[in-house]
Amino acid sequence: MKEKIQEILKEALQALMHEGAIPAHDIGSLGLSVPANREFGDFASNAAMVLASRAKRKPRDIAAVIKERLETLTDVFERIDIAGPGFINLVVSPGMWVSVLGEVLQAGSAFGTSSFGAGLKVQVEFVSANPTGPLHVGHGRGAAVGDTLARILKAAGYDVQSEYYINDVGNQMNMLGLSVLSRYRELHGAETPFPENGYKGSYIGDIAGALKDARGSELLDMDEAEAVAACRHYAANAILEGIREDLELFNVRFHNWFSESALYEDDKVEEMLAYLKSIDLSYEENDALWFRTTRFGDEKDRVLRKQDGSLTYFAPDIAYHKDKLDRGFGKVIDIWGADHHGYVPRMRAAIEGLGAPKEAFHALLIQLVSLVRNGQPVQMSTRSGEFVTLREIIDEVGKDVCRYFFMMRKSDAQLVFDLDLAKKKSDENPVYYIQYAHARICSILRNAREQGLSPDAPDCDLSRLGSGDDLEMIKSLASYPDVVVSCAADLEPHRIAYYVLELATAFHRFYNRNRVISDDRGLTLARLTLISAEKQVLANALDLMGISAPESM
RNA sequence: GCGCCCAUAGCUCAGUUGGAUAGAGCGUUUGACUACGAAUCAAAAGGUCGCAGGUUCGAGUCCUGCUGGGCGCACCA
């Protein structure tokens, strides 16, 4: 709805500026807001005040000109008021609001989608955990946020691809191989020291056991390097398979899995280094190869190839992002743990160095998740292998609750995950509160059907919904498309979690104060239409978060 | 030492490009089921938006300084 009003306002302002009736100004900066106070109408514009300060005219005079034009231009407004210092307050006509219900039911699961993104190719890369162990809670938050953001961007009209980057090269993978080999030898009774910084989790033993089942004692006869490689390969596959299963359970499915090792196999890293050299963005110094990232705002140049000849982690990362750009993505969104924030300027510099505008790259930082049980923090430490896995949390509280809880905070704010609250099936738990609203509507619709009532009936009179609680509920669901766009524009998917909670609140309030099915047939049919639309929007919003909308619970 | 993020009700947190009287949940107090699901609703109380300046018609929001917390400052990954 807001978008429609914005269009109308824009049209009026453009015409007036063209005629010289009001000073010319960038229309994009003239805001339309939803006033906090209902007395100020459905929408309010500050256009007159902004223009007045430019033109040295009285805001209220300019507002009067705009008001007049809007009145001749359209009849969607029931009332236009000039208030306070020069706000133009707009009250949308009930008929206009009611017509939204038809749009919702017509569009169905597509209600809320828009062409805001104009088909721009966007990639969202998230989770991207090393295949050295199962996903833990922190990865879960990244998965929930990333997947929800991808869904939101798609709904907002972007051409979205989600991707998981598999860091299957490097020391940590070698350590994985060594750790598994050590456990494998133990299983064969061979004395073997466990690597100092090895992975100590019990899953390593499980993998070694599976490897023993699959290949017997074969690896004992190999030379060290060969055996480690075999272990590494086997373990990485097994762990990655587990990660895929966990994500599947979490309702997260990637369009693409991109392997770091493929970068090397396809010579992408060397190609990138040659490219940087060709455009003079790299240089040799102290027997190392450097990237001139300072040219793009980084605080110091960064090493690509170390003195010992090996590459830094930065090098394949640049090659990976070059590959992303080469694949035609106009916007590349990386979702990282907040502890990597120091890495952002350097990556952004690299993107610029590769010739893309710096706005093409966005890093969304995900803050820590801490678990609380019985009011006490749950201790976690990756190093010792004592961490709570995503799988354990899903098994304990369920996928839906888990996904919602991870969306409850701005991604760059720390999140306290209260396991006791998560398991409560009461109004304290927002997930049940929201799903209950959906189930309740389904229940009413079932009752109505049994009584032979259908909102499609010809004597359904939607004009009965133009006031009071009915109108309030329509307004709450009509803002859904605006919320989706706002989430997409600002890359803040958590807003959808707050919105859907408000939507549920609007329904529960309505339900407690009004009868849907009553003796008044016309009103009953209209309200059945109303709650059908409400149900649709609840389901659509929940779907953006990958959360189910149960028919009963 | 340098840089980034955060500071809003007793608690956990929203607050969209700067807008009018700063919101929600929990907790506290008091009410509502012989009609569609009480896993629900209504009402009350609760604030110097960390502190001090500045920008302007207007600041929780932008700028500067300070205080207090988190994180990062590798030829680690």
What does this structure look like?
The chain is of the alpha/beta class and 553 residues long. Among the domains are: 2-92, 2-Layer Sandwich (Gyrase A, domain 2); 97-116 and 426-544, Orthogonal Bundle (Isoleucyl-tRNA Synthetase, Domain 1), CATH 1.10.730.10. It is 51% helix and 13% strand. The protein has helices at residues 2-19, 47-55, 59-73, 94-107, 137-155, 171-187, 202-215, 224-249, 260-265, 268-278, 314-326, 344-353, 390-397, 399-407, 419-423, 430-450, 468-478, 480-490, 494-513, 521-544; strands spanning 32-33, 43-45, 77-83, 87-92, 121-125, 159-166, 256-259, 282-285, 288-291, 302-305, 331-337, 361-366, 369-373, 376-377, 415-418. Strands 7-6-5-11-12 form a 5-stranded parallel beta sheet, with helices on both faces. β3 and β4 form a beta hairpin. The longest helix has 26 residues, at 224-249. The radius of gyration is 29 Å and the shape is flat. The model has no long low-confidence stretch (mean pLDDT 90). It binds one RNA strand of 77 nucleotides through α2, β9, β10, α16 and α18.
